[in-house]
Specification:
Blueprint (H helix, E strand, L loop, with lengths): L2 H19 L4 H11 L14 H18 L5 H13 L5 H19 L5 H13 L1
């Protein structure tokens, strides 16, 4: 199995654990994000129904899967999102924090099923971010 297919497999496995045990990870991801980067919460003041956060979570998961599978356009899409978010005052480090929180939640959801391969897959994706 190629490294990209292997990475994609373990990322997908993580997301399956999250879906089975947590459901939508969005509320938990944003809760932790705002604790660790409280300055970001003010950017969502108009998102009273969570729609913006939901759309961002969807896009983040879509990008995650592309990054895991070595899709050629993933780096360009990430660069576009980083550039867009810089306009809101969101530095690149916050993207890494977002995905680190998602990996942390995945590890918690997987529990005893979390393997070194999960960790390696997330590290590989984080290196791309």
């Amino acid at each position: 199995m190629s490294e990209a297919l292997n990475t994609a497999h373990w990322i997908d496995d993580t997301l399956e654990h999250v879906a089975e045990r947590i459901g939508d990870p969005g509320p938990l991801v944003y809760e932790r994000l705002f604790v660790r980067a409280p300055e970001l919460e003010a950017l969502f003041v108009l998102d009273t129904d969570g729609g913006v956060r939901g759309e961002m979570m969807f896009r983040a998961l879509d990008l995650l899967r592309d990054l895991a599978s070595d899709e050629a356009f993933a780096d360009d899409l990430l660069a576009i999102e980083v550039r867009n978010h810089l306009g809101y005052g969101v530095p690149l480090e916050r993207f890494a924090l977002f995905y680190a929180i998602l990996a942390e939640i995945g590890a918690e959801a997987a529990g005893d099923a979390w393997q070194p391969e999960h960790e390696a897959a997330w590290r590989r994706v984080m290196d791309r971010v």
